[in-house]
Amino acid sequence: MKKLFQTYAGVIVLYIVFAIIQIVVIASKQNYYVDEIFSYGSANYTESCSMQPRPAPYTYSPAGEAYYEYMTVDEDAGLNVDVVWKNQAADVHPPLYYLFVHILSCLYKGRYTKWIAGVINIVFMLMTLCGVRQIAGLMENDSKITMAISLFFIMSAEVLSSVSFFRMYIITMCEVIWLTYLLLRYYQRETIWFYLMTGIVSVCGALTHYYFLIYLFWASVIYCIGLLTSKKIKRALLYICTMAASGAAAVLIFPQMIYHMFGGGYRGTESFQNLHKGMRQYATNLKAFFSIINDRLFGGMILILLIMLLFAGILYLQKSKWKLYLQKFRDNWEWAILLGPALLYFLLVSKIAVYNVDRYMMPVYAVLVVGVLLVITRLLRRVFGNHERNTKIVLILILSIMLIGSWKNCKWPYLYLETKQTVDAIKEYSALDCLCICKKGDEWKTYGNFVELCKLNSITFFPDGLEPLQSMNELNGKSQYLLYIYGADDEEILTELQDICPQITGYEKLDGIGYASVYHVYGWNETM
Asked: Contact 409/296 with Cβ under 8 angstroms?
């Protein structure tokens, strides 16, 4: 055991350090994107996938109860997979991620903690690191190169930023890297284990995020082309049968995915509509997504790498005959398997994505990191030949420059650090009651204010104006309130409030987050 520990001590420390860094990042998270609150609610809420608060005259006290009712498993309830499947069938996403959230939420009944989603991200990101190391070792068989790539991955600001986003993208990244590893590992030989594991990963990926299927499609096309050009027709047919069986299994497990992708699911419809948009819009999308990958993931070095590749290719072709070059490329088809699907994923997702945001590229982050860094390593070996020491020194220098650029360009959007001051300011009003003006069906707009709302004494939802407040004698006589307005005319609401509560004589507008207009209203010369 001691000898085993000594052999793998560096690797063990690597995983421990990565886990600690992720914990620090998640602990630094100050607020939530609306979809992150939705992750908890649609995993646990028995009424529907969206929040359905009871309207006035019902008052939630403390205010957080409105959200804990939505986001947590009831203390009297147990594991209920049917709720997860029903909610996701009504939404536009497959259910696997929500199932994990629901299972862990059952361990914390009636309580919310960000560490439910946080632990899921940490565990699957550690598994992703393992996949990165497996591919690096497979392609290079050099422990120092593998460690250098591993260190870049765990220290990348953009990779760490993705950990702080509580959605299904980290699990998808893990499934993508392990699918890629399986295709690379077993490309040269046939085994039942390969078909079984590839099938399982494919089913899990399809049940995690539909964009996984885009990567799976391109990976399968390139893999089968490699087999067919090597005249391994039987293996290509077996692989196709495996994918067909995996697709059938995924549909049997979650039949609604067909509707989501090709029927009335609004995300699928929007994606197909984007396919028909012009090239000008496509060019804009390509530029935006390329900027995300280039600036945040690789510190702005991709263009330099592409120039290096072009220069190396020209020199190589001058010294080589085309037939020899093509034969050598076929003999090293693994590089096409490693880099081709990610590139084609980038091109297609840039065309169909609803928004130009980083999360749609997160599934291929790990593959891009290991693929690009391995290409750089090969290029440096071409340049320095047998001078391995020089190769590694320059590689470390390039990786360091990339990391510095990554940290400089990363915006850490999912930590919401900029909201801390606003949330802390709301603490001054923690003894007050909140009047929330929000139309029925728009309750999701309040998710972005979850942290601050949970600090208040109570919250009452008014979907159709403040008229019910007239009969709420315990509430309408207060001298101060916090007023949250979503999608209504602020002046009309303030006037209506003063008509119902004549003791309210003044107000001040506070800094709001997300969709909210926030007011501190007061009377009898009281201010806070």
From this structure: yes
CA distance 296 to 121: 20
Other Cβ atoms closer than 10 A to 394 = 17
Q: pLDDT per residue over 336-394, tens digit each?
A: 999 999 999 999 999 888 888 999 999 999 999 999 999 999 888 877 777 888 888 98
Q: Convert 326-340 to b/e letters by CB count within 10 Å (16 or more is b).
A: eeeeeeebbebbbbb
In 3D, which of 277, 13, 274 has the Cα closest to residue 150? 13
CB 374 within 8 A of CB 338: yes
H or E element, residue 237: helix 233-253
Q: Which CA distances in Å does 301 have to 291, 350, 357?
A: 11, 20, 20
320 by DSSP, 3-state: which? coil
Position 526 pLDDT exceeds 60: no
Q: Give 202-221 pLDDT, tens digit per residue.
A: 999 999 999 999 999 999 99
Q: Taking a C-beta distance cutoff of 8 angstroms, is the pair 19, 25 a contact?
A: no
Confidence of residue 511 (pLDDT cuts 50, 70, 90): confident
Q: How far apart are CA 528 and CA 513, in angstroms?
A: 20
> C-alpha 184: how far from its chain's center?
25
Angle, alpha carbons 431-436-441 (nearest 5°)? 145
Quote the CA–CA distance of 57 and 484 in Å, as a whole number. 17
State which H helix or E strand residue 426 sits in: helix 420-426
Cα separation, 174 vs 153, in Å, equals 13
CB burial of residue 113 (10 Å; 0-12, 13-18, 19+): middle
pLDDT band (50, 70, 90) for residue 325: low
Calpha distance 344→218 (Å, rounded): 7
Check whether 96 has a pLDDT greater than 50. Answer: yes
Taking each helix axis as running N to C, give the angle between helix 115-140 and helix 2-27, from 0 to 180 degrees, rounded to the nearest 10: 130
Write the single-letter amino acid at 183: L
- Of 140, 138, 127, 18, nearest to 395 by C-alpha is 140
Strands (E), 134-191: none
Residue-wise pLDDT for 229-238, tens only, equals: 888 999 999 9
List CB contacts of 34: < 8 A, sequence separation 6 or more: 444, 445, 447, 448, 514
Beta-bridge partner residues of 61: none
Percent of residues, the chain, with pLDDT higher than 90: 68
Q: Do 153 and 369 contact (CB within 8 A), yes or no?
A: yes
